[in-house]
Amino acid sequence: MTDRVTPLPEAIAQAGLFDARWYAAGHPDVTLTGLAPEAHFARFGLPLGRWPCPDLPTRLAGLDGDLHARLAKAYGLDTPPAATLRDESKQGSQQGPAGFDTAFYLQANPHIDHRNWRPCDHFMQVGWKDGRRPNPDFDVVWYEQTHGHTYDAATVNPLLHYRKTGAALGLATMPPRPVRLDPATARPLPPTPRRACLFAGWDPAGRIDATVLRYLTELARHADVFYLADCDMIPAELAQLDGIVQGAWARRHGAYDMGSYSLLARDLIGWDRLSTYDEVLLVNDSCYLVQPLDATLAMMRDRPCAWWGMQATKGMAGARALQPFPASERLSMAEIRGGLIDHFEDDPTYDFHIGSYFLALRRDIIADPRFRRVLDAVRPVRNKRVIVRRYEVGLTRFLIGLGYAFDTAVDHVTRDHPVYSAVAFDLLENGFPLLKRFLMAANPFGITATAYWEAQLPRLGSVTPVAEIAAHLMRVVPPETLVLNRQIMEHGAAPRLPLSEADFVALDAGTPTYDHYWAFVAAAGDGRLTDDAARVLAAVADDPQRVKVILTRGRAIPQDGHAIVSLPLRSLAGQQMLARCRTVFVRGANGADLGWPLDPGLHDVIAQVPRPGAPSRPAPRTLLAEIAARATGSALLAGYVRPDTKTPRSVVFLYDPRAMARNRARLFARLDGLQRRGWTCVAMDIDHVARDVLTRVEAVCFIGLSAPLDRPPAEAAAATLHRRDLIEAVRGTGGLVVCDIDSPVAVWPVFAGSPQVQDDPLRANALAWHSAETAALLDLTDAVTVATPELARIMAGLLHPSQSIHVLPGSLPADAMTVRPRPARSRLHLCCAAGTALAARDLAVCLPGLGAALADHPDAVLHLVDAKETALDLPADRVRCYRPMPDRARQTFLAGMDLNLMPLEATAYNAACPATPILEAACQGVPTLGTDLSALRVMIDDGVTGYLVPDPQDWADRLRDLLRDPAALRRIGAAAQQAITAAHDPDRTAAQLSDIFDALLKETRNVG
Fold it and tell me: By its UniProt entry, which Pfam families does this protein fall under (predicted)?
C-alpha cells in the first residue's frame, strides 16, 4: 500500500507558504468568485501558476526534499534565483543583467517588497512575465507582441532574447516615434454593416445569468454572436443560448477574456470566417446593459476609424500616483489623437487604455497578420493585473503603434476613472449604455456613490432590472465585500475595521444582551449555517418579536422574514449585533467557529459539531422550547409578568433636535389635546434620554425613527445603536413602541427616487445605509403612524402584519394656523411650496408652463425661495428670490400670496410624502395648484379647495386660466382655508392619536 501524497495546495499551506491576504489583494477575481483565498488558490491559482506568497523564490531556496522539487517543477524555478542572476550579471553590473536599469525599475514599481527582492531578481523571476519594463527604452509587452513569434515567448525573457539575438538582428524595442495614426485606415462602415461578436463569459457557478442573457439578446440584434465561457458549464446552461447565438462553448482555459477571444478567433470560428464581417466586436460579461445599443452602434458606424471602444482611460490603479493625469479634469479625444498619444510613450508605465470590455475592430485589423499573431498568442497569466497590462493596455498600444486610427463613443477622457468612479453615473445620465459590475463588486477607487445605481437605473428605464442586477451581485460577490463597499461614506475614509479580540471582550462586557436576539453564525469552512441553525432560523424567520442576526462568512445566506439583520461576522457592525444576542447558533464552540470570544455568562452558545453517524438535535419546536426555558426574562417571550411600576396613560415623545423639524411640529401640535384627554406627555431629546426613564412609561413615540444623517459615519452608527437599545428598553418591559414617520425613507427602492438621493450621487452610500438602518429600527416597533394613505400602503409592504399602521393627518402649531393680515396689493403674487425650497427637478415640472404664463400676464410676480439658478430661465423682472426664512416670517409672507404652486416630479416618493405646504398656504387663505399625485389628492378637492394638474403639459393652460380670474382664486382660497384646516385641526388629530394609543395598550404583547 502506497502512502498518500499530500496534494500540492495542502502541502503549501502546511509549510506556511500561503499568504492569504497577499494572494487576495493581488488577484481581484478572488473576491468575484466568493471563494476563500485558500480554496481559490487550490482550484484556480495553482493551475494558473500564481504564487502563494510574494517571496516564493527566496523561501523555496530554504526548502529541502520533495516539496522543494514539486514547487520548483510547478513554478519553473528549478535553479535558485540568486545563482541565475549572478550568471546573468557577469556581462553587466552587480545590480542586474546588462540593460537592466535599477533606478528606473524602482521608480516604476514602488509597490514591490524590496525587503525580499532585489529589483533585478524581481524582474528576472516575475517582472518580465508581468510585462514590466527593465529600462525606459525597452517595452517587454511591445517587444513580445512584435517579435514573440520568432522565439518561445512563453518561457524566454524578452530582454535576454534581445541581448542574445534581437540586438544583432536590429529588432526594435519600442513602438516607432513619433506616434502617427494613418488616416487611410479611418473609414466609416457601410449603412447596414455585418458584425460578428466574440463574447467572453465566466461565472463562478458555471451559469449564464439572467443579466448576461439580456445582454446577449441585445447584441444578437446587431451581430452574429459567438459565446465562450472560461469555466465549465452543463449542456442545459448553454442550451439557454439556442436561437440567440451562432455558437456557444464552455471550457476552462484560465486566460481570462482575451483567452476566450483568442480561442474563438483561432480555433472555434476561424479567421477566414471572421474576415467576412465588416466589424468584429470583442465583448465580455463584465457589464450590465442599461440602454439598447442602437444609438451607440449607429453613431460609431458613421465615425471614420479602424477600431473603437466605448471609452478610454488614462491611468491604471497601480500607476496613478506616479503618473498624474495630464489635465485638471478631462482631455478630449481630439487632443489625445492630435499629439498626446506620442507623449504617453514617455510614461514609465504605459497606461492609456481603450476599454477592452467592448471593442470594435474593422476589416483592416482583422485581416492584419500582426494582429492575428498577437491574439493567437494569448496565454494564461498569474493574475488580472497582468492581463490588463499585457493584453488590454497592451492591445491598445499595439494597435496605435501600428497606426490604426481609433475613436471612442465617449469623446473625452476624465481624470477620475470613467467607469469605476462617480463619472460612470454622469455617463449613464448622458446615454452611456453599460454599467460595469466591478464598480459595485469591488469599488476599486473607494467612492461614496456605489449605491447610486439603484436610484438612477429605474429613472433611466434600464433594460436590465435593478432586481436582476442585485440578485446577480448577491450571487457572485461575497456579502462582506458588498457591505464594505457601501460603507464608504466619506471621501478618502475606509470602512471601520472590526475590533481586536481584546477590544471585543470589552465591548461584549459593556453591551446589553437581549433574550429575543438570536445570532446564526456561518461556518468557518463553507460559509453556510449548520443544519440545526438553518432549521431554527426558518422556524422563527417570520416571528416579529425575535430579532434574527445572520452573521455571514464569504457567502450570502438569503432568508425571507421579518426582524432579520444580515451582517458580515468580521465587521464592526457584526460584532456589535453579536454582543447583543443572548442565543448564538454556531457549528462548533471553539474560537475559530464562533469568530469572537463571547462571555459564556452573557450568551447561550448552541453548537453543532457534525460527526459521521451522529444523531440529529431535536426538532426546531423542541429546541425553541429549550431556549425559552433558559431565557432570563423579557416581555417578548412567554412567561413574562409586566411590572406595575409604569405610570398609566403616560407617553414619552422622543425627537432628534437636528432633524425632522416638520415631523416634530406635527406631533407637538397634538400634545395639548392629548393632555386634555388624560395623557401624561413628555417630549425629550433622543440623544440624552436615559433608558430607565423609558421603562416607567406605558408608551414611547419616536418622532421619525431614523438613523441620523447629519453626523460622521461612526457617530451616526453609534446613535443608531443607541436608538435600538432605547427601543429594547421599552419592549423588554412591556411598553408600547410607536413611530411617527412622514416619508418612505425606510423603503430604499422608493427613497432612491427622492430628490435627496437623485441629486446627490456622492451621498448615495450614506443615504442607502440610512434607509437600511431605519428599516431595521422600524422592525422593532408595535405601530407606525403616517401622514398619507399612500405612505401607509408602502409601509404595509415593509412591516409585519402584526405591526399596525395608522393614517394620522398632519397638523401645525396654533401659531402657524393663525390667519395673518393680508396686505393690499395690486398685482398677482405666486409662490412655490408655501415659501420653502423646492427641489430643482420638482420645479422643472412646471417651469416651461410657468414661463409662458408669466409672459402672458405682466401683472403676475413669482416669489421663489433658494432657487436663483432655476430663476435664470424665467423673466428676471418677474421673479423675486429669497433666502430660506423662519416659519413665523413665512406665515406673513404667505398672507401676501394669491396662489401657491406645488409642482412635483411623478415619483413614488413624492406621492407618499405629506404635502404640508398646501396646509400652510390654506391657513392663510391661499389656494394651491399642484401636480395630481395621491399625496395632493387627499388634501385638494380639484376645483373646490385647490387645483390639480394631471399632465405636465397642462401647467401653462391651467396657470393662464387661474391668473385671468383673481376672484376665483380668492373664492377657492377661502374654501381651502375652511376645509383643509378643519381636516388637520390639532385637537381633532390629537383625539385620533389618543384612540390609537388606547387601542394598542389593550392588546397583549406576550408571545406564546
Answer: Glyco_trans_1_4, RgpF
